[in-house]
C-alpha cells in the first residue's frame, strides 16, 4: 500500500510539473506586441485563460483521485454504470458537433461545441470526452465479461461495433483522434485476453475505412503530399511544420531565454496549441526539450 501511494505521489508531481510547463510556455507564446491585455476582459486572452485553467485542473485531478474507479464497473443492469452513460453522452455529443447548429468550426474543422456562459463561452471538444469514455467503457466491458471474451459473435463483435460507431463519428472531422481511440481500444482488448486472431479479422474493414477516410479529404491528401515533398510546400501546407523546425533549431543547446523567442511574433501561427513544443525548444533549447521528454518518459 505504501509503495502504491508513493507511485501515486510521483505521478502527481510529474503531471503537475508538465502542466505547469505547458501553462508557462503558453503564456510566453501568447505574447503579442500589438495587443494590450485588459484584465476586465481576460477570458479573451489565451495566456490568461491557461493561468486560470491550470489550478482548476489540479483541483479536479485531486478530487478525482479520491474516486473509487470500481464504481465504473458494469453490473447486470447496464444502465446503472457511469461508464455506460459516459459512452452514451460521448456518442450524443460527437453526433451533435457535426451539425452547424451545435458545432463550431475552427480552422476548417468542426470539432467543438461552444457553451455560452453569460458574456463568455467555453469551447468543448467531444472527442476528448470520447477518449476517456472509451477507455472506461471498454475496460468495464472486458471486466464484466472476462470469462467469455473469447466468444467472437457474442462478445467481441458487440464491443467492436460500439467502438467503431464512436470512431466513425469522430473520423468525419478528426482523423488522428479517431485512430488513437481505435488503437487504444484494441490494446485494451488484447490486454484483457481477446484472441489476436479475432483482432486480425478486423484488419480488412479497418484498412478500407482508413483509405476511404484518407482519400475523401483533400486536406489529408495535401498533408501527405506536403510531408513527402516538404520543399515544394514550404509556404503553404508545410509552412507551420517548417517554422516549428526553425524555432527548434534556433534555440540550439541552451535556448534564447524564457520569453525571448521571436517565432511567436507571427512566424509560427499555431504557437499556443499543438506546436508549443517548438516554443520550448526556441526559448530553452535542447536542454529544455530534453527535460520535457524525460518527464514524459518518467510518466
- What's the Cα radius of gyration? 22 Å
Q: In DSSP terms, counting alpha (H) and pi (I) runs of 4 or more, how many helices?
A: 11
Give the % helix: 55-70%
Proportion of beta-strand residues:
5-15%
Set down the secondary structure blueprint.
Layout: H1 2-29, H2 46-64, H3 82-96, E1 103-106, E2 109-117, E3 120-124, H4 126-144, H5 152-171, H6 175-192, H7 196-200, H8 203-215, H9 218-228, H10 239-251, H11 276-298
Antiparallel strand pairs: 1-2, 2-3
Helix pairs in contact: 1-2, 1-11, 3-4, 3-5, 4-5, 4-6, 5-6, 10-11
Question: How is this structure best summarized?
Answer:
With 299 residues, this protein is mainly alpha-helical. The chain has helices spanning 2-29, 46-64, 82-96, 126-144, 152-171, 175-192, 196-200, 203-215, 218-228, 239-251, 276-298; strands spanning 103-106, 109-117, 120-124. It is globular.
What does this structure look like?
There is one protein chain. This protein is mainly α and 299 residues long. It has helices at 2-29, 46-64, 82-96, 126-144, 152-171, 175-192, 196-200, 203-215, 218-228, 239-251, 276-298, and strands spanning 103-106, 109-117, 120-124. The chain has a 3-stranded antiparallel sheet. Helix 1 packs antiparallel against helix 2 (46-64) and helix 10 crosses helix 11 (276-298). The longest helix is centred in the first third of the chain and has 28 residues, at 2-29. The mean pLDDT is 85.
Key terms:
globular; 11 helices; 299 residues; three-stranded antiparallel beta sheet; mainly alpha; 3 strands; single chain; 62% helix; 6% strand
Amino acid at each position: 500500500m505504501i509503495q502504491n501511494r508513493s507511485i501515486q505521489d510521483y505521478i502527481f508531481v510529474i503531471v503537475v510539473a508538465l502542466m505547469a510547463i505547458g501553462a508557462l510556455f503558453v503564456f510566453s507564446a501568447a505574447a503579442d506586441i500589438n495587443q494590450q491585455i485588459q484584465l476586465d476582459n481576460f477570458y479573451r486572452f489565451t495566456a490568461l485563460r491557461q493561468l486560470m485553467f491550470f489550478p482548476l485542473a489540479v483541483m479536479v485531478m485531486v478530487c478525482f483521485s479520491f474516486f473509487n474507479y470500481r464504481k465504473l464497473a458494469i453490473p447486470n443492469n447496464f444502465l446503472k454504470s457511469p461508464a455506460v452513460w459516459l459512452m452514451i453522452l460521448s456518442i450524443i455529443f460527437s453526433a451533435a458537433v457535426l451539425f452547424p447548429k451545435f458545432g463550431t468550426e475552427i480552422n476548417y474543422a468542426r470539432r467543438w461545441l461552444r457553451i455560452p456562459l453569460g458574456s463568455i463561452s467555453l469551447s468543448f471538444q467531444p472527442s476528448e470526452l470520447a477518449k476517456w469514455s472509451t477507455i472506461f467503457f471498454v475496460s468495464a466491458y472486458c471486466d464484466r465479461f472476462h470469462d467469455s471474451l473469447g466468444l467472437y459473435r457474442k462478445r467481441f463483435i458487440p464491443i467492436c461495433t460500439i467502438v467503431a460507431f464512436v470512431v466513425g463519428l469522430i473520423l468525419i472531422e478528426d482523423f488522428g483522434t479517431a485512430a488513437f481511440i481505435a488503437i487504444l481500444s484494441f490494446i485494451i482488448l488484447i490486454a484483457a485476453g481477446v484472441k489476436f486472431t479475432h483482432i486480425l479479422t478486423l484488419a480488412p474493414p479497418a484498412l478500407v475505412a482508413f483509405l476511404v477516410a484518407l482519400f475523401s479529404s483533400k486536406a489529408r491528401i495535401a498533408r501527405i503530399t506536403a510531408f513527402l515533398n516538404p520543399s515544394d510546400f514550404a509556404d503553404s501546407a508545410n509552412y507551420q511544420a517548417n517554422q516549428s523546425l526553425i524555432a527548434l533549431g534556433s534555440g540550439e543547446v541552451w535556448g534564447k531565454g524564457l520569453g525571448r523567442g521571436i517565432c511567436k511574433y507571427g512566424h509560427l501561427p499555431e504557437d499556443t496549441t499543438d506546436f508549443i513544443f517548438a516554443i520550448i525548444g526556441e526559448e530553452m533549447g535542447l536542454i529544455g526539450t530534453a527535460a520535457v521528454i524525460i518527464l514524459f518518459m518518467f510518466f
